[in-house]
Amino acid sequence: MDKFSINPCLRTDKKQKRNGTYPVYLRIRIEGKESKIPTGIEVSKEDWNDKKKSPKNSILQGQLQTKIQKIITYINRLELDEQKITLELVKDFCSGRKKENPSQMSFFDYYDKFLERKRNMGIKESSIDVYKNTRNVLRKFREGKEILISDISLSLIEDFDDYLCSDECKNMPSSRGSKHKNLRAVILDIKRHKIDVDNPYDGRFRIPQGNEKEIFLDINELNAMRGLRGKFSHSSKQYKVLQMYLFSCYCGLRYSDIIDLKWKHVDLEKQEGYVKGIITKIQVKTQGSVCTPLYTYSRSILLELSKGKSLLKTDVNVFDNISSSTVNNILSKLTKIAGIKKHITFHSARHTFATLMIQEQQMGIFELSKCLGHKTLEMTKRYVKYDLAATINSAKEVDIFG
Questions:
Q1: pLDDT digit string (tens) for 5-40?
Q2: Is residue 206 domain-resident?
Q3: Are 290 and 257 spatial neighbours (Cβ–Cβ below 8 Å)?
Q4: Domain-located, residue 204
Q5: pTM, entire model
Q6: Neighbouring C-beta atoms of residue 122, cutoff 10 Å
Q7: Which terminus of the chain has fewer CB atoms gathered within 10 Å of its CB, N or C?
């Protein structure tokens, strides 16, 4: 790293202003060369702390620190881009002679602004977390190095995809595809703001689709996960994540709807046959309504959490708000303990519910579609990892979940 220093100084060698103040400069030194650059801040001798090299006024202190931080950020960016740091470049930057091309902006900075706009539009925090996860993985891929908007290219996206397939990530196609869709959304937003950027997703790079054989648990694997319940304290995060995941396997709700689930959405009184209650709520993702039945196992989880049913019909959330990244990290460890050789995420619970309902001939595709809150049968068919011909003689009673 090129050595540099930035030190504020009060230029008492300059002519005193009529109001009794002197200009504050920054003494910048790079590779033995030094220059004094004006900050536009003026302070009297009495209001200058010569020991701390700073104004005594807190507002002026903040203004000065902001100017210093902008220069440091610029120098760090030059270093990340492996450019030689010179005093002339820094002077041009401070004087404003070097106008930054929008395409030379940090892609990560734009990504963060994109997320802030999404948040202001009312997008759910769970969706924001998914975007954040993609950004964090991209940062890890770059090993901390900056990415400019002008750096976006087909080769960069292909290298990123190779990284997602590496042993370090072990991303399945469905998870890889989600990350690519997030990046595509940001790139399209950049283009909408009339900033020149290459879009590799214009047909040159094909976003991977899910590997349908590896994103659900069979009945034995599901029972193995259920068998872990006695291994953890009920107050532990492992146990809470396990309960959330099992509950989703038993009813098919998405992660966002599990986190959003409140006791007022639960009705344990409506029971008929193997149905031990129902959940009715508005889905976070689609804003459409969903009504899904509860079976013995899912009902028992709710009863355990309901504090003797005292929480029923309240606005209290059923499950703790644990971030999706934390949930998936814990699930990865739980599957290893259970002896399951699959890389699963929380979303696999929804596929597990759908697949086992059809595979065990317990529910028809139309009824399953309603339980999952899908608008079309085609969407439901993509969730089911089984020959749909098995639904011809679907049974009317369900007992695989207790």
A1: 999 999 999 999 999 999 999 999 988 889 999 999
A2: no
A3: yes
A4: no
A5: 0.50
A6: 6
A7: N
